[in-house]
Amino acid sequence: MRAGTSYGRKKRFSPRFFVILAVLTVLIAGTVLFLTVPRSVHASYGTISDGQITNAIVIFSEAQIELPDNERIIFDVPNNSEVQAEQIIGQYYKKGYVASAFEAYVNLRQNIVAYQNEVFLKDIYQNELNQYAIEIDTVLTELQNFDSASNDYITVNKRLSEVLAARQEYIRSNYPADEYLQSLYDEESERLEALNDWIQPIRAAGNGYVSWYDNEAYDNINVSTAASLTASDIKKLLAQKSIYKNINNSNDFTVRIISEEYIYAAAVMTGDIQPGRTVTLYTDVSNEALQGTVVSVNGTGEKAVVIRLECRVGDFLEHRIVNISQSPLISGLTVPADYVKSGPEGEYVLAQVGGEKAEVGVRVIAVSGDTAVVEPVEENMLLHDTVIYSK
Predict the structure, then answer these.
(1) Which residues make beta-bridge pairs with 269?
(2) Which of 36, 158, 195, 303 could form a disulfide with 299 if both were Cys (CB 3.0 to 4.6 A apart)?
(3) C-alpha 370, offset from chain centre
């Protein structure tokens, strides 16, 4: 080594340096991509509120009508119809009923009509009789469209029987019967009496709304069992799909009459909530201020809370899960609030329309946090499930 000559030590980088450098590179690249590449969402219907939104299970106050095992049920009023106490809302056919017995009864009535036409009425024309004939032909034609095992067949056959009975009563009141026709009348009365024993009326158990459907997810949830619900129970129920089944397709022949006075809402809540407390709640069904009373609180921390709400019960018949809040709820088409832009002609969103990105004018209905509820300015513009871009 020469005198007066020195050599510097070579700089070495530790592995940690390269790891940190790689992480910084990824972060910078991600930030650049985030700032430069447009983000997108699908516009969807939702609900926002200035207050906390909670999912709740709707529990109806119901009176149950237990029916014995039977062959079939005929509905006289549609599901969710408003009914009065003791009103006949349908009939059930007792176990062992044979459809051919009713068909034989209808055939006998048709034979009576044929004999009356041939012997007594062939040379007589009356407008009343002509109207009966037209109606009978119409019902017979309709009857051919249904299988004899279907409820529709039974219903139409019942109507045919009623028309035949009305016609027969008119003729009995205006024309005498010979010995043979009287024997047919007597046989008809015997068959009718036997049939009436097989077909029993279903009467409403009180004023309210009739429910011909069971809900498999909520079959065991009612006013008497609501207080025993836990927060875990409510979460499980909220996660289930609401499955309705027609009672004619079920072994459970319970008909329900839903009280028209109030509903109960069961939800998971936290904080200081005590039974007897009065509350004002909003739902996404009516969005009116509803007065309620806390009737039960079960648990600590996360609590199962049941609230009785005074409302128009008919508004909730199609809902078993609702959103509730102590502030008004706004429902509609939701998008991220920062996706809404302002331009010379007003506010708009960038949406995929016809395969291309386009400005679509919108009206902002409400904003809560980072979510906005909007509606298109153009009436026929549908944005639900449409891709909306951030830029």
Answers:
(1) 303
(2) 303
(3) 31
